[in-house]
Amino acid sequence: MIDIDPNGTGLPGIEQLRVIVGAAMTIGLVLAVLALIVAAVVWGFGANSSNPHLASRGKTGVLVACGAAIVCGAAVTLVNFFWGVGQTV
Question: What is the pTM for the complete model shown?
């Protein structure tokens, strides 16, 4: 039987890599908020100008931005969940 666990101190630069990944998650969340604002404005312009195509694009953009924020926010939890599932196989 082999028993191997992740080693958080085994390689040099692991702490810097964690900082970089955290910064990337922050950038992703900030961009998701920006995309949400832009898409909401497009949706509003489309609705107020009676342009259903533009309104539909805005609605899609809002949903995509919310999905991106969910993935950025839940990335660590998702990876940990599937790590646990993989450990039971």
Answer: 0.80
